[in-house]
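Researcher: Sequence recovery benchmark, item below. Answer with residues only.
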């Protein structure tokens, strides 16, 4: 394990009114930031479908109930974040079967579901793609389609949900890349469960459920890996608890093919 982890220098900085923890590992700088633009009263619920057991493959209309949160609005502090921000505003991150999320700017979505067991995870997101991390701002559901021998995901067990980074980053958006995830049925702590973040082979251990900003990524393709681990660094069993994704950074359009 020692060979995987370079020396990490931990410093405390004060920026505005937020205390930031900065982790330096080689050329990669990771900043842990406190959540801002709090929406403590925001809630997300699933109105449709009511029946989560479907007789056969079909197109399913998902309809969400959003309270105390306005989809499509720009989050008030978006201009201060200096990271990728959606011009379409606040939205829902809709994740089906651990695939990269689909951003919903209206509280509805149509998806064709094949026979089998499916897991829906959805949560509210600020316009700059930072999730709202409260017990009322997310939905987790199991959906069964047709007769299937698939094993259902146990949604009562500790679960890590990958959210950001995702896709392509162009120009000024490449300077600070948001790392954001959801943890369900567990808490993170220095002596308990943690998230192991690996950025292009560089390892960071995260003991707080907060957003993080990565600086120092090269232009081109980068690999981001998130793992939910116990206090000894062992991966906690679960089909979503190890996720690896690739993103691409480019100084300008057009993006060169790798």
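Model:
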């Amino acid at each position: 394990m020692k060979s995987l982890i370079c020396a990490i220098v931990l410093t405390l900085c004060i920026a505005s009114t937020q205390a930031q923890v900065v982790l330096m590992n080689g050329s990669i700088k990771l900043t842990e930031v406190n959540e801002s633009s709090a929406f403590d009263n925001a809630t997300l619920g699933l109105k449709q479908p009511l029946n989560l057991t479907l007789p056969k493959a079909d197109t399913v209309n998902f309809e969400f109930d959003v309270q105390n949160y306005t989809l499509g609005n720009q989050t008030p502090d978006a201009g201060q974040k200096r990271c990728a921000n959606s011009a379409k505003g606040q939205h829902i991150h809709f994740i089906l079967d651990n695939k990269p999320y689909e951003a919903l700017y209206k509280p509805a979505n149509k998806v064709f579901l094949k026979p089998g067991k499916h897991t829906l995870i959805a949560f509210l997101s600020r316009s700059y793609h930072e999730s709202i991390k409260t017990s009322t701002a997310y939905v987790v559901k199991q959906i069964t389609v047709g007769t299937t021998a698939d094993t259902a995901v146990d949604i009562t067990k500790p679960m890590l949900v990958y959210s950001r980074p995702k896709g392509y980053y162009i120009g000024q958006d490449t300077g600070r890349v948001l790392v954001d995830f959801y943890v369900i049925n567990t808490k993170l702590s220095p002596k308990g469960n943690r998230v192991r973040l690996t950025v292009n082979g560089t390892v960071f251990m995260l003991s707080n459920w907060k957003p993080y900003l990565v600086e120092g990524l090269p232009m081109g393709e980068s690999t981001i890996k998130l793992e939910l681990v116990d206090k000894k660094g062992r991966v906690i069993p679960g089909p979503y608890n190890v996720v690896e994704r690739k993103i691409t950074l480019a100084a300008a359009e057009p993006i060169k093919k790798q």
